[in-house]
Amino acid sequence: MSTQGDAKPSAQWRPPYLLYLGNAADDLAIKTARGVAYWRPEWCVGQLRHPDCKPTLDLPDMSMAEAKDLGANTMLIGTANAGGTMAPEIVAAAIEALDTGLNVVAGLHHKLRENPDIVAAAQRNGRVLFDARDPAPGIPVGNGRPRAGRRLLTVGTDCSVGKMYTTLALERAMRQRGLLADFRATGQTGIFVAGAGVPIDAVVADFISGGAEWISPARHDGGWDLIEGQGSLFHPSYAGVSLGLLHGSQPDALVLCHEPTRRHMRGLPDYPLPELKPCLEANLVAARLTNPAVKPVGVALNTSGMAAGEAADACKRISDLLQLPCQDPVTMGVEAIVDQLLACFAN
């Protein structure tokens, strides 16, 4: 199992990457590309945007041919939409990339390998396709049996509030202290960053908890598995994935992730975000089914939409409310959360 610290993507679809943004309308639509560019900047040669694309990664804009000339090996489709569908412009871009001599990787629910025109282009050019949302065969049904090792799971008040960033930041901070800690990817972006993982939202429902058990097996070295959370128990569309991860991860520790400026669940304007205390308690109750000793160790805020002073005030307010350290992993780090984790599991 590859981990974030020693990520080694398949030699067949290795970087450098050209990040395809297409005609994305906002930053949430390019979260896959942004995550790869943030955590693996050395792998990214540039971005490809259509004229109506609004967001940017502040990478050089370039064509596929220019990227190929600069050494790009693979075009990574870094944009997504609700449902993960493959729009006609993405199909056309994938075919053009293959004809240019680039491999193509994607994390959409609609698979590259399911489009006959894309498959034909890959075959005639001797190029490789990789679908990150394609679970490995043989994932078992979860059994809930206790297993050795320590595990931390990030959970959220909503989708896309920073669970992957928080998990990767925790891994980095813990490794800098000389601790054994391994990021376990459960989403397409995390898989691209780590080089391996389980696309948990593409796993058949009966096997979700088993997928979490499979990605984080028993370990006997005293280290931590840091499992990337997905969705939210309070999101009517995606709560099932969140619950399966809670049960299969058997987490010893939870970190709650939240975006304070968000006013409703992503994509569902009729559903407000949950209050933090009930949200954290609901996650703890669900986690106790397979690990009655689970503990909360921190809150991670996405304060990208706030001024620095507002962000600091929000962290203090939430820390006082929940009696837990609260930080923005990107702008503040996660040292206080790591301190709390280590204090809770000192023995």
UniProtKB/TrEMBL annotation:
<dbReference type="InterPro" id="IPR035402">
    <property type="entry name" value="DgcN-like_N"/>
</dbReference>
<feature type="domain" description="D-glutamate N-acetyltransferase-like C-terminal">
    <location>
        <begin position="141"/>
        <end position="338"/>
    </location>
</feature>
<dbReference type="InterPro" id="IPR035086">
    <property type="entry name" value="DgcN-like_C"/>
</dbReference>
<dbReference type="InterPro" id="IPR027417">
    <property type="entry name" value="P-loop_NTPase"/>
</dbReference>
<feature type="domain" description="D-glutamate N-acetyltransferase-like N-terminal">
    <location>
        <begin position="57"/>
        <end position="135"/>
    </location>
</feature>
<dbReference type="Pfam" id="PF07755">
    <property type="entry name" value="DUF1611"/>
</dbReference>
<dbReference type="Pfam" id="PF17396">
    <property type="entry name" value="DUF1611_N"/>
</dbReference>
<protein>
    <recommendedName>
        <fullName>EBNA-1 nuclear protein</fullName>
    </recommendedName>
</protein>
<dbReference type="InterPro" id="IPR011669">
    <property type="entry name" value="DgcN-like"/>
</dbReference>
